[in-house]
Specification:
It contains seven helices and six strands. With about 180 residues, the chain is of the alpha/beta class. The chain has a single domain, classed as Flavodoxin domain (Rossmann fold). Strands 1, 2, 3, 4, 5 and 6 form a six-stranded parallel sheet that branches. Bound molecules: flavin mononucleotide.
């Protein structure tokens, strides 16, 4: 059976200074069935080629949206990408814009905050699954299956007590294995 086609859409405003997302992207790029795209590099002026983005979505089965958490949400270009690319009649509403129906959506997110902060009563009060709801509902409306998010917490510099290199390497290998094992 042919391997599912994976599209990795990376949104990182300063990728050259990244610890976590660089390592994750490096692992993911080893997959021969994965198309890698660095959207901030592609569109530094935020002028998104909507036709190209829609075509790429149509050509793949699993869409991975990888980004650092920014103000409990996503980087600005990812929001702009959603607004521009997920057009009425293309991505929604059900029965009218059904072109993404049946595909899969994986959120791959790094956070500076600790896992323990993301809970009721914790420093950030809410769980990651609660905070990712707008993306989950976007996937729902567009007919994509929302997969359990892949999240790495405490992605800070080592000097700020961030995740160790060993642990980060281990998590990146898990990310590779997760993508490699995806069968649709
Ligand atoms: C403007 C800005 C907003 C951020 N907002 C959050 C946040 O809401 N929650 C959080 O846990 N970390 C937040 N962070 C920390 C980033 O998520 C963290 O630096 C990033 O995931 C590290 O990944 P990288 O090594 O690939 O850059 C923020 C960082 C910046 C610069």
């Amino acid at each position: 059976m042919a391997k599912p086609r994976i599209l990795l859409n990376l949104f990182h405003p300063n990728f050259e200074h990244s610890r976590g997302n660089q390592m994750l992207a490096g692992e993911a790029k080893k997959l021969s069935n994965l198309t890698y795209r660095n959207l901030y590099q592609e569109y530094p002026d935020f002028k998104i080629d909507v036709t190209k983005e829609q075509k790429l979505l149509l050509e793949h089965d699993l869409i991975v949206f990888q980004h650092p958490f920014r103000w409990y949400s996503c980087p600005a270009l990812f929001k702009e990408w959603q607004d521009q690319v997920l057009q009425y009649g293309f991505a929604y509403p059900p029965g009218v814009g059904d072109q993404l129906k049946g595909k899969f959506w994986l959120a791959a997110v790094t956070t500076g905050g600790h896992q323990d902060a993301y809970r009721s009563g914790g420093r950030n009060n809410y769980t990651m699954s609660e905070l990712l709801r707008p993306l989950q509902q976007t996937a729902n409306l567009c007919g994509l299956t929302w997969l359990p998010p892949f999240v790495i917490h405490n992605v800070l510099p080592i000097s700020m007590n961030g995740i160790s290199d060993e642990e980060l390497t281990k998590r990146a290998a898990e990310y590779f294995a997760l993508l490699d094992s995806f069968t649709g």
